[in-house]
Specification:
Elements: H1 2-20, H2 22-58, H3 71-88, H4 96-99, H5 103-118, H6 122-146, H7 157-182
Helix pairs in contact: 1-2, 1-6, 3-5, 3-7, 5-6
């Protein structure tokens, strides 16, 4: 559990630097250059992910806090599909981005909440609630830092459909790779 917590804290700390410590970001960029800063940033995020994954897998006898009704599993899987589509809609201009300012972070929060619907053990509660809280805080900090939201132009419906299809393909890939990524079969 300690590894999960350290991974979450490292993940949050690295992401919060631009909003909470902009002078540190500037100092690191001046010292390391743009590429060096991005490399260090990426390395810290990979380390955080590794800590979270190994921390989650290292809990041999998880304690179960709750078990939700069986139908929540299907609802959770549907929410994960929504999360994948939101995640894929974060960079290209989409109608989704005209409705949701931060589709990637919103997708992460939906993903985390879906996992909390399906997993009531201590390691899952720590990991997924931690990521959901981080995502919500990150949205608030980015909004404060960036100010007023300028909505992007709406793309053609064809581009919108492509984003949704890519989200569906990503969902299928992660669902089938889940046993190797997380050690838990989805189907």
């Amino acid at each position: 559990m300690t590894l999960i917590l350290v991974g979450l804290l490292l993940w949050a700390a690295v992401h919060f630097i631009p909003s909470l410590a902009p002078d540190l970001k500037t100092s690191l960029k001046n010292r390391l250059g743009e590429g060096g800063y991005m490399g260090l940033f990426s390395l810290a995020l990979v380390a955080a992910l590794v800590l979270m994954v190994f921390g989650w897998r290292s809990v041999e006898q998880p304690t179960h806090y709750y078990t939700l009704p069986l139908w929540t599993r299907d609802a959770g899987m549907g929410l994960i599909l929504v999360a994948m589509i939101l995640f894929m809609a974060s960079k290209p201009p989409t109608r989704i981005r005209r409705i949701i300012r931060h589709p990637q972070l919103t997708g992460l929060i939906v993903w985390a909440l879906a996992h909390l619907m399906m997993n009531g053990d201590n390691r899952s509660v720590l990991l997924f609630s931690g990521l959901a809280v981080w995502g919500a805080l990150e949205i608030l900090l980015i909004n404060r830092r960036e100010g007023e939201w300028v909505k992007p132009e709406a793309p053609s419906w064809g581009k919108e459909i492509v984003v949704v299809l890519i989200g569906c393909v990503a969902y299928a890939i992660f669902a089938f790779a889940h046993p190797w990524l997380a050690g838990v079969a989805v189907f």
